[in-house]
Amino acid sequence: MISWFSKYFPNVVQLGWSGDAGWGTSIFQTLFMTFWSAIFGGILGIIFGVILVLTNEDGIRPNKFWFNVCDKIVSIFRAVPFVIMLAFIAPVTQKIVGTQIGMKAALIPLTLGVFPFYARQVQVALESVDQGKIEAAQSLGATVKDIIFDVYLSESRSELVRVSTVTIISLIGLTAMAGAIGAGGLGNTAIAYGYNRFDNDVTLVATVLVIILIFIVQIVGDFFAKRLNHQSR
Amino acid sequence: MSIIDIKHVNVDFPEKENKVVHAVHDVSLQVEKGDIYGIVGFSGAGKSTLVRTVNLLQKPTEGEITVNGNTFIKAGKQVISNKKLQVERRKIGMIFQDFNLLNEVTVVENVAFALKHAGLNDEELEKRSLELLDLVDLKDKANAYPVELSGGQQQRVAIARALANKPNILISDEATSALDPQNTQQILDLLKKLNTKLNLTVILITHEMDAVKKICDKVAVMENGQIIENGELRQIFLHPKKALTKRFVGGSLETINTLNSLHLDTLNKNEAIYQLVYSIANVTKSIIIDLYKKIGVEVSMLYGNVELLNDEPIGTLVVMVKGDQEKRTKTVRFLKQEEVTVTRLDEKGNPYD
Ligand SMILES: Nc1ncnc2c1ncn2[C@@H]1O[C@H](COP(=O)(O)OP(=O)(O)OP(=O)(O)O)[C@@H](O)[C@H]1O
Ligand SMILES: [Mg+2]
């Protein structure tokens, strides 16, 4: 088995497991970037999504000013292509992380790249909560905080899991691009050690690993989305 | 002082092209403590919009609203802080046509949600929530999710939730419209029981007059954003004035249909049609036989019906009386003595002028 593998995938084996170019390292880098930017982008996205829904015209605290501010920020960041964001945000990254390259530096553009996309999805998910439930909660004397947590976020939780799954999957795609600023990861392996060196076996394995990762995320996401849903029989 | 006092309330909704919909137009309504006040009217009459101003789910454009002695709206402006409004809302329960339960938490958690600010510890919270479920006979479903319940059961959970903070007012906006007759009856009985037991004031919006007849003491009829007629149910039922009210009262409408189907054409001058409405309890003897014996008029029945009005059986008779002017005057006088409401009708069933 091992010898068969090293016969057909010589360059894959040569990269090794640990070390700068190793498979273990690049898998870790991809997971690291996906995880932390999902956390930071997720928090930002939920905050923006919630504010957009609350301050909207027919929200529970209509406020044109804050709605417009958040709406514009989300729209503008969403309009910037990610590759350009990487370059554009570099000076800011330098200030915050202390370096412009590497896995940690990539978290800033990844977070900023993913949050507007997620914020819009959160907004749609929250708006799908039946207005009647909001009114019933209001009629019970619920506070704004109660309505955010116990009605909006709780009632749309299955939908939120679904859009989070979609977001994490597209985030995995973005981490591959982050390889461009030396962030490493499976995407970087596929390009730098596979494509650029004409080592197609490396590209193939890196791609398969990314696909497996995406499948896992999708399956776990679907499981919880279903498990958490009690909206209808 | 009235528990709910609505004065000259207007609710306008802006539409495109600078037009506005006057959903509620200069409505004043006083609801007294312990009333079960029915509000009827066709779809779009403004019933929901009006009652939603009571707990400010809908802010009125103009008018004054005072509930439980606290003024919420004065001259169209909110004069209560949002914080205080939250507290006041807990004294005004509301239930809806589509229940509006939280689907992602269990039945008992739905009730507990309402008690979030009641200052109870976990143990007390659970105890009180279960007590409330017991009140609506659903203790055994405490750990089920709302989707696992029937419509009627969901509505009972909604009632338990609405009553959690011991409100003294309960607003029901078409709460039985999505239910079958049996469940409707159950919910109405429950509302009546709560009214008697807890002295709960109930506002019951419905387009089924049957529900009103079963439990209401008072009723308001709405049309085009206005209350066109309101008062004691008995009074409205026995003496409806507006055409729409007559349609809702039902008996009158049936009378009209029956008379039209008889094709009486023109009556001769010694004949007249009367509608007699009376409480069965008050009229025990046979009035028709009495009329013949005492006054000598011949009375023939065209239509008859008995309905329960808030548990009181009310009879409606439409009769043709044959006799001269003098005898007919005596007839009417006799009937009025017997506490029968007499309305002379023409051959089409409309009030005779
Ligand atoms: N949020 C809103 N925006 C604009 N127009 C509205 C709004 N809510 C109600 N209306 C309009 O106000 C009028 C009264 O509506 P309302 O819902 O109060 O009627 P209703 O008597 O409760 O009817 P139904 O029996 O169908 O529930 C209708 O013409 C309706 O279209
Ligand atoms: Mg309505």
UniProtKB/TrEMBL annotation, chain A:
Q: Which organism is it from?
A: Lactobacillus acetotolerans
Which processes are annotated in GO (biological process)?
Answer: D-methionine transmembrane transport
> Domain ABC transmembrane type-1 spans what residues?
27-221
Entry's family note = Belongs to the binding-protein-dependent transport system permease family. CysTW subfamily.
Q: Where in the cell is it found?
A: Cell membrane
Residues crossing the lipid bilayer are 27-53, 65-89, 101-119, 160-182, 202-225
- Output this protein's name: ABC transporter permease
* Recorded topology in the membrane: Multi-pass membrane protein
Q: Which Gene3D superfamilies match?
A: MetI-like
Automatic annotation (TrEMBL), chain B:
Q: Name one Pfam family in it.
A: ABC_tran
Q: Which family does it belong to?
A: Belongs to the ABC transporter superfamily.
Q: Which source organism does the UniProt entry give?
A: Lactobacillus acetotolerans
Q: What is this protein called?
A: Methionine ABC transporter ATP-binding protein
Q: Which GO terms describe its cellular component?
A: plasma membrane
Superkingdom: Bacteria
The record, for PROSITE patterns, names: ABC_TRANSPORTER_1, ABC_TRANSPORTER_2
Q: Does the keyword Membrane apply?
A: yes
Q: Name one GO molecular function term.
A: ATP binding
Tell me the GO BP annotations in alphabetical order.
amino acid transport
Q: Which UniProt keywords apply?
A: Amino-acid transport, ATP-binding, Cell membrane, Membrane, Nucleotide-binding, Translocase, Transport
Q: Which reaction does it catalyse?
A: ATP + H2O = ADP + phosphate + H(+)
Residue span(s) of domain ABC transporter: 6-249
- Role played: Part of the ABC transporter FtsEX involved in cellular division. Has ATPase activity. Essential for cell division and viability.
